[in-house]
Design a protein that fits this description.
By secondary structure, the protein is α/β, with parallel strands linked by helices. It has one domain: Hypothetical protein pa4535 (3-Layer(aba) Sandwich). Helix 4 links the parallel strand 4 and strand 5. The longest helix has 25 residues. It is globular, with a radius of gyration of 16 Å.
Length: about 180
């Protein structure tokens, strides 16, 4: 494994921990990291002892376009419909990988879509009308994760796209508190 691949994997592991911390207040269930892998990125153990994979991927502008978007066009975040198109494309892409590689390692996999160039705040109003639009995959759960407030608040916000029983926005605990403590 190259230094760049090791750095990427370590970055994914750092991003995994806030999700593992937020997951119980959204679902009532804990996930404990068992080990890292590649297909999927991580294997965790549920409270009931069953293993589940976690595949993490970033929802972001193409790095070659990001400079133009931020500097020249003065856009700080993706437009909501642009982000939705990227989200659907990533779900389709990761589903193809899940079918071809992940099922050998673990039966069920959670897809975690990290919002990098967008926020849940801008998406949640259009997402509320899209329940059932993200069902064409084999993931056991699909989560949008907004890390934009992690540095300021020490936690993240979640939106469950699938399954329907968990559908919706999970705001950070005590959302009115002051940032940076």
């Amino acid at each position: 494994m190259s230094d760049q691949e090791i750095g990427k994997k370590e970055g994914e592991r750092i991003d995994l921990y806030p999700f593992l911390d937020a997951y119980p207040w959204a679902t009532g269930e804990r996930l404990l990291l068992s080990h890292g892998g590649e297909s999927p990125d991580f294997i965790c153990t549920r409270s009931n002892g069953r293993e589940v994979g976690i595949e993490m991927t970033m929802v972001m502008w193409d790095p070659r376009d990001a400079f133009c978007q931020r500097i020249l066009d003065r856009k700080g975040t993706m437009e909501p419909f642009e982000a939705l198109a990227k989200i659907q494309g990533l779900i389709d892409q990761k589903e193809e990988l899940r079918r071809s590689r992940y099922t050998d390692n673990v039966k069920n996999t959670i897809l975690v879509l990290q919002l990098v160039d967008g926020s849940l705040y801008s998406l949640r109003f259009i997402l509320k009308d899209l329940k059932g639009e993200f069902d064409s995959h084999g993931f056991c759960e699909v989560w949008l994760v907004d890390y934009s407030g992690h540095e300021a608040y020490g936690d993240i916000e979640l939106f469950c796209l699938f399954p329907h029983e968990q559908w919706g926005f999970y705001q950070r605990p005590c959302p009115g508190r002051k940032p940076y403590g």
